[in-house]
Design goal:
Blueprint lengths: L1 E7 L5 E7 L2 E7 L9 E7 L5 H17 L3 E5 L11 H15 L6 H27 L4 E9 L2 H10 L3 E8 L5 H7 L6 E6 L7 H10 L5 E6 L8 H15 L1
Helix pairs in contact: 2-3, 3-4, 5-6
Length: about 250
């Protein structure tokens, strides 16, 4: 992990940009974090829109986590931002846009081509980032995962034992294979659903929540579209992590 820039934000949070094997990322640590008092870590997922585009929302989420005593980190997803283009993913996105523009059903084939290669590529990268992050003396775990492509969060919840709780956003297309993986998830879950999300299959989101094998799982459904998440929904997610990462 090579740190490329750092700055101290107004609330005392230290923001550091880094690269790891050519993958850009950002780490935010609260002023309280030190080798003598390491803090838990939350991995901040995001859609494949690029860190520059997502930065304001990611930084706001990191600031809230820092106020609760947690560090936060994120990495650029494959094919996004300044990373090399991924022709297969771009073709899948184009097929998705054509189907939606024509009012046609989004087929399993389109969803699988769009999501499954991304999950297969991104999850090992998140695990590699977690290895590097937890080697820093000021970060001590436990670890949470929050937001982003829900199929990535589900896979991480299954394969990464260092993640002890996850906050998932039901706002992306879900391959059928993800439902099988969901049954293997046992960690506490906090799931956010926008009831009128124009780009999300509500019933599929409800079915996925039902499939999760976790003994503790909570569904927070709010009225409104994809970008209409109320501010208090973030408060509930923060309280969830406070319960499970302390």
């Amino acid at each position: 992990m090579d740190f490329t820039a750092e700055r101290r934000l107004d609330d005392g949070v230290l923001e550091r940009s880094f690269t790891l094997g050519g993958i850009p990322g950002i780490l935010w640590t609260p002023a309280s974090a030190s080798a003598q008092a390491p803090v838990p870590l939350i991995l901040l997922g995001h859609p494949a829109l690029g860190l520059d585009t997502m930065y304001p929302r990611l930084a706001a989420r990191a600031a809230r986590s820092a106020a609760d005593g947690f560090a936060s980190a994120t990495i650029e997803l494959p094919g996004s931002g300044e990373r090399p283009r991924w022709p297969a993913a771009e073709q899948a996105r184009a097929a998705l846009r054509r189907a939606m523009a024509a009012g046609e059903p989004v087929t399993d084939e389109i969803v699988d081509a769009l999501v499954l290669p991304l999950v297969d590529e991104a999850v090992p990268e998140w695990q590699g980032a977690l290895d590097a992050l937890l080697s820093l003396p000021e970060l001590g775990g436990p670890v949470g995962y929050s937001g982003g492509v829900i199929s990535i969060g589900v896979r991480l919840a299954v394969v990464e034992p260092r993640i002890v709780a996850a906050n998932l956003y039901a706002g992306s297309f879900v391959p059928r294979a993800t439902f099988d993986e969901a049954r293997q998830v046992t960690i506490p879950l906090h799931t956010l659903l926008q009831w009128d999300d124009e780009s999300n299959d509500r019933q599929a989101a409800l079915d996925l929540f039902d499939a999760f094998g976790s003994a503790e799982k909570t569904l927070h459904a709010n009225m409104g579209g994809h970008t209409g998440v109320p501010e208090y929904a973030g408060d509930a997610a923060a309280q969830f992590f406070t319960r499970h990462l302390r």
